[in-house]
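[Meeting: bench + compute handoff]

Bench side (C.D.) handed over the final construct sequence. Compute side (W.E.) agreed to return the predicted structure before the next meeting so the bench team could plan truncations. Sequence as handed over:
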Amino acid sequence: MSKFWSAFILVLLFAGYAGYYFCRTNLALAKTSLAAEFGDEGITEKTITNIASTGLVFYAIGKLITGATCDFVGGRIMFVGGMFGSVACTFLFLAAPTLAAKMGAGSLFWLFLTAACLNRFIQSTGWGALVKVASNWFSFHTYGRVMGFLCVSYLFGDFAARQILALFMEDGGGWQQMFAVSGEILFVIAVLCLIGLRSRPSDVGLIDPTVNPSNLFGKAGAEERPPNVWELLRPYLFSPSFWLVLLMSVTLTFVRESSNFFNNDYLKVAAQVSDKQAAIYSSYFPLFGALAVLATGFMTDKLYSGRRGLLMAGSLGLLLPVLWGMAYLPSIEGTRWPVVMVCFVGFLSLAPYAFLTGAIALDLGGKRGSATAAGILDAIGYALGGVLGLEIKSRIVPSGATSIVAWQPFFGLMLGLVTITALACVAYWFIQERQPRDVFEAEAAVE
């Protein structure tokens, strides 16, 4: 019965967070269609990029608020509530042109902006709530595998959303049909999670699991709720390990978010493919990242006794020559090599990224503060890495660039950031993980 419930909760969490991406990825895929339809009203691709960038700010702010809230309120209610809220915002965006026709000229932009920003703020509840539920359900010696599987949810969700929504681009359904289908899919998943999801094993008569004894709260990390905000935040403020992970979050979020949003544009120029082909090829980025996340999650549990820093550093070290090739090998233009390199970037960057707000957030936060750890890491990562990634690319890569050479400064910057991150991973291992993990191995042997 215990294995059944653990697997059942995993499936619901996976499906729920993957579903969030249908109401997130749709904006990136719809920007060309929106600009074509509403260009006369000032809605351009640059406008949509600005809306997405502003939405990331609201997403980051939301992470700070909702992460800590999850640790006090509980994960289940916020996980499910976030899905229903995102559905409502998606249909508000869909209704914006109709509402704008009644409100008058100039209102369309503000309606699009309001719907997109509100959606991202509400979606900020999802990951912290998922981490909170996972901290209650799974033992620390399985964090790598469990969170590796759950981290695949957002990679798979991104991949599936791009593949499915690209079909509506092909059939001429336009952005309206894409948004309608996105909302309908997430609504169905939300109903299933509302019915089946449970907050902790004791809710169904099972024994609650143990937490990582090296968590920043010590023995108090096994308690589900903190006594007050200061006791929740204090361990993070004074932990060198957490500050290193925060640095990693900023740099790797830059890589992930800028790649997610601009892979389409890069592939159209570098591989010289159509909009539809670029949408499909860009989905390989999260797909190959998912494979790496699963493999490295298993490896850190089974082969590295929960020590993740050196494996992350090795993966990022292998990423450096790939980014160098994307920046300084213009001869790949017009070939399929840009597609291959996008796959490698996904494979080598997304596993280290996934560890930060997944297994490492659980390692450091335990049951008491895991959602807060994930929320802070995501919030600062998106505010400094995600938003800046969108803005910096827009400034250093000319709009409508037709040559791969124009992308050199952007990939050169990514090359420098990944180098810094690899060094931070080594420092994290040295401070937090280099001591033998006898307790981890003993617990794993018992299980």
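W.E. noted at the follow-up: The CA atoms of residues 250 and 381 lie 4 Å apart. C.D. will use this when planning the next construct.
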